[in-house]
Design goal:
- The complex is a heterodimer.
- Chain A has twelve helices and no strands.
- Chain A starts with a helix and ends with a helix.
- Chain A is an all-alpha fold.
- Helix content of chain A is 69%, strand content 0%.
- By secondary structure, chain B is an alpha+beta fold.
- Chain B contains seven helices and 14 strands.
- Chain B is globular, with a radius of gyration of 22 Å.
- The two termini of chain B are 28 Å apart.
- The model of chain B has no long low-confidence stretch (mean pLDDT 85).
- The chains are: A mainly alpha, B alpha+beta.
Chain lengths: 212, 228
């Protein structure tokens, strides 16, 4: 995807930049999503928001004819991006497609609320967003629900949290993480080891069969 | 092997979120069982995303919005962003618990797409059983239909459409035999008489009352009411 050219070239030619959405390629967008997932990076979120907001509004306006509902689609879509960034699968397609499917789901649930008067939020079952392999992921999902892994995770030091989130939620390799966070591979490995031993302590010993 | 697939226009409408919940769920179930349609749907979704959010869409934004409205939007955006990032929680990985039902001693696991739908009680008539999935779509009725071995549905046709998605077991009609995952959309031009030798469970969406086309069955209103 080469999206940058248009806007950038204009700037290079000396045309005054006006208030219009910055243009990013998929690599940059992916970096934003990872930064949100790993560091709750508000700056990255703001950039992502400003990039997608006009697009989401334009598509939403074709389905909802009052601006309140259009804004609701925007807010709800971007709130999910913020809360589910760690579920984004970097190997499974572009950020643009991911955000599009979130918006599609949000619109579907909202239309159902309006038309069928049902607030059953079926979209998550019809188009599951977190598509991951059954197996390890399932066991981990189980852990999450049963042992409040997230709460424990939040208690880790920030630098260890980032590594664990990247490794498990985003399914990044240790090498990818090293590059992303600009750290030596050894540091990543030792942080992960430290974090896991702490998590094990917090979660108790009865998880041994699952982690083996 | 699955031989009956939704048409491309249906897949497109599905990917765009334009179909009613009943049909969306049907296509989701089929797509989940059919690698071919899975790939097609993924490609369609990517294409729609590019069309809506990609480069073309971007230039449309620049052309259609003046500087003023952009600046206006910027300040609105800042408020919205503040509200969103104030939420410190991250969403847990969704846990999917399979939903099982038992019918005449046989256990079935329902597809994820319909696992959380409200399911009415099964009503029985001969070898036919039907339970409603309560989607609240007015005249469009969505049901689970079960045929015990040797069961059949009398020859009928429709004013609207009848979607049958085979979930488990087998059945056949005048057109041939069907395997789980097969997706059959019939309308008023078709008549058929499904028969199941070994029994089957289907997901059905019917948009209007059925019309039985032969003899005594014309008078069999209970069956029409059951299947619609």
């Amino acid at each position: 995807m080469q999206v940058i050219s248009g806007a950038l070239q204009k700037n290079q030619e000396g045309i005054k930049p006006i208030a219009m959405p910055a243009d990013f390629d998929n690599k940059t967008l992916t970096r934003f999503v990872i930064a949100i997932a790993l560091k709750r990076d508000k700056q990255a979120f703001t950039s992502l928001f400003k990039f997608f907001a006009p697009k989401i509004k334009r598509v939403a306006a074709t389905r909802f004819n009052n601006s309140e509902q259009v804004n609701e689609v925007l807010q709800e879509t971007m709130a999910i991006v913020w809360r589910k960034a760690h579920l984004f699968n970097i190997d499974k397609g572009a950020v643009t497609t991911w955000v599009y499917t979130i918006m599609r789901n949000v619109s579907f649930d909202m239309l159902r609320k309006v038309q069928a008067n049902k607030e059953d939020n079926l979209s998550d079952d019809i188009w599951p967003l977190a598509e991951r392999n059954i197996g390890e992921g399932e066991i981990f999902a189980d852990h999450l629900a049963k042992k409040h892994m997230l709460t424990c995770l939040e208690q880790l030091p920030q630098n260890q949290q980032m590594v664990v989130k990247g490794f498990y939620f985003l399914e990044m390799s240790q090498e990818q993480l090293a590059r992303q966070l600009d750290l030596p591979l050894g540091t990543i490995k030792s942080r992960l080891r430290l974090a896991l031993s702490k998590l094990k302590l917090q979660l108790g010993d009865d998880n041994d069969q699952a982690s083996s | 092997m699955i031989r009956h697939h939704p048409k491309e226009t249906l897949l497109k409408a599905f990917a765009g979120g334009e179909l009613a919940a009943s049909l969306s769920a049907a296509i989701a179930i089929h797509v989940d069982m059919c690698p071919l349609c899975q790939e097609k749907t993924a490609a369609i979704t990517r294409e729609q995303a590019m069309k809506s959010f990609g480069r073309e869409a971007l230039s449309a934004d620049i052309n259609s919005s003046g500087v003023d409205s952009c600046q206006q939007a910027e300040t609105d955006y800042d408020d919205m962003i503040q509200v969103i990032v104030a939420d410190e929680q991250i969403a847990p990985v969704p846990l999917r618990i399979p939903k099982k039902i038992t019918l005449h001693g046989q256990e079935f696991t329902l597809p994820q797409a319909i696992a959380n739908l409200q399911l009415g009680k099964f009503r029985h008539l001969g070898k036919l059983s039907r339970a409603r999935l309560l989607l609240g779509e007015g005249p469009i009725h969505t049901s689970l239909l079960h045929l015990q071995p040797g069961g059949s549905v009398p020859e009928h046709t429709h004013k609207g459409y009848e979607l049958t998605l085979l979930l488990a077991g087998e059945f056949h009609d005048e057109q041939g035999s069907y395997v789980p995952g097969d997706f059959m959309m019939l309308d008023g031009r078709h008549t058929h008489t499904p028969v199941s030798e070994q029994g089957c469970l289907c997901y059905t969406v019917v948009s209007d009352a059925l019309h039985f086309t032969q003899g005594i069955n014309k008078l069999l209103n209970p069956i029409a009411a059951l299947i619609y």
